[in-house]
Amino acid sequence: MVNELRYRPSAKRWHAYRNGLYECPLHCGNLLAIQIGDGYFPCRLELDADWYVEIGETKLRLHPKTVYRAMLLF
Question: In terms of pTM, does the model score above 0.85?
Fold first, then answer.
């Protein structure tokens, strides 16, 4: 199932939605498959100064105003 990841400034964390309905908060270490272009890439959600995902050894910072498509793997 594909979810939308949206940042909630009041909670200072990312949350997953499915079909427009709230599903769950996301936490450091959660495993996802995030959509980049036409493909989905397995990654792990992490927090440093900003939220980011690790895809292999590559870190991709998540932008709070962007909605991402991802499959939850947990």
Answer: yes
